[in-house]
Structures are given as C-alpha cells and as structure tokens.
Amino acid sequence: MGVTHVLNAAHGTAYSHGGQDFYGATIDYYGVPAHDLPSFDISQFFFPAAQFIHKALNTPGVLLSREYYFCMKISSQFFSEKLSLIQPKCVQERRMMPHTRDSSSPTSSAESRASYETPPLSDLQRLFWFRGGSDNHVDQVWPNIYLGDAWAARSKTTLQSLNITHILNAADGPYSINTGAKYYEDLQIEYYGVEAFDDPSFDLSIFFCDAANFISKALNTSGGKVFVHCAMGVSRSASLVLAFLMIHENMTLVDAVKTVSAHRNICPNSGFLSQLRDLDIKLNEERKGTKESATK
Length: 296
Prior knowledge:
This protein has eleven helices and eight strands. It has two domains: 5-94, Protein tyrosine phosphatase superfamily (Protein-Tyrosine Phosphatase, Chain A); 104-295, Protein tyrosine phosphatase superfamily (Protein-Tyrosine Phosphatase, Chain A). The strands form two sheets. Strands 4-5-8-6-7 form a five-stranded mixed β-sheet. A three-stranded parallel β-sheet has the order 2-1-3. It has helices at 20-23, 46-57, 69-95, 110-115, 121-126, 150-154, 156-161, 208-219, 236-248, 253-261, 270-295; strands spanning 5-8, 28-31, 64-65, 138-142, 145-148, 166-169, 190-193, 226-229. A hairpin with a 2-residue loop joins strand 4 (138-142) and strand 5 (145-148).
C-alpha cells in the first residue's frame, strides 16, 4: 500500500499496542489515546488529528492509513478544506488566550499575576491544539521531573540512565500499569501509586495534593529525580504534574500548561482539565487574598 502516515485512534488501549517504535522510521505515527465510550471526550483531539491528516495529505506521494482507510480516503478533501477554513480562526483565538508568563520564563510579572483570571474550559482546551513538544516515551518537563508512558516505566535501563530515584504511577492497579514498589526493588526507587482511570467522570483531584507533595519531596531529596507516568504520559500523569506546578511552584494553570507543553505534547481529558481549573480558581483566590491582607 505504500503507507507513509498512520493515525491510530485507539493508541495505548487494550486493542492497540502500536507506536512509533512499532512502525519504524519510515512511517510518521500519531496516536490518540481514545476510548469508545459515550462519556469519552474525543473532541479534544479533533484539531491535532485534523492537523496531522492535513500535513500528511500535503506531503508528496503520501498515503494515510487508518482503521477505516476507505473513509479517510473519501473524506480527505473534506478535512483539508475544513481545516483551511477553521485554522485562521483557531490561531487567532489562541493568540488572544490570557497568559501570565512565557513558557520559558521562570516567573510571572507582578502586573500580569494581579490581573490573571482563570480562563473558561473551552479556552484552556485550545492550549493543547498546537503541539510544540515531543511524543517520546519520556521527556523532562521541569528540572528533575520526567513525564512519560508505560514503556518507559517498565524499562529499567531507561530509568537507570536517567538516574530516577522516585516514581509516581498515575495508572496503578491490577488492570492498569501494575508495576508496584516490588518491581523497582533492585533499583532502590521510591514508589507511589495512584489508581486513576482516564475517564472525564473520574475524580483525580483527590490525589492532587498527595501527588504534588510526593513530587516535591522527591525534588528536595539529594540527587532526587522523579518519573511521573500513566499509560501514555498524556492525561492522568500530565494532570498530576500540572497540579504540582500550580501547588508548589505557584504557577497559574495557563503557565503550567505552557511549561509542560513546551517539552511534551499532553492533553488531559476534559474532566481532569475542569478539576485543574477549579484548583486554579482556588489558588488564584488564595493568592489575591494573601496580597490584600499584606497591603492592609
């Protein structure tokens, strides 16, 4: 068939274990960790998937593969035309997104922080449309914090090469990434497991503080390096890293998203993002309250 690009809409599920390593260097791969459930919000992947298809179709001699290839072939012109219509608007909206600091800047200005308000959920979701990070098995997203997937979690060679001392598994449990503390006994790694499900209805917020404290403790250990993972390193684990940056590094949610996304492509599901938004509102109110008390 001469396929050059593969878009897998069941990436990382029980039915699909493929990835870039499986296809090799000759095929450009993009995986969407979607579940075929009525409650799953697949809309968060519409724009990046459309971008991937559009880019593929504009590559000379390209042939795109998908589970329903004939549907993609018939609708390829539709995707291309629609993307060309909506992209300028999306780009314009993204440029208008509120932000308090550049992703490369360690601190926000006092002026921007004072005027910061938590954006609506729809605006926050747009932050993930433009993929500027990587899709590696593991990426360093903050000094001594590594974010990645199940493959990296099971690769002791990789963990040793990175000198990982702590692991936070956001997909712990017998039906998920069931490594556990015993798996890492020979590496002398401190382990913390969170039994979370990548479902918008799952309340991940109950783990925000404990997970953030674990990461903070790891970073304050001499030579401490923490690896945070779930199945794909995109939703559950990414959400916990964002929560850490908000709680312990005093970042706004927008800042945290930009910081992590600059190094790794992430996409928390709509439920997790909504929970992070609630946390952002709470922390922002606390910051403003502290500032008002200090000025009295």
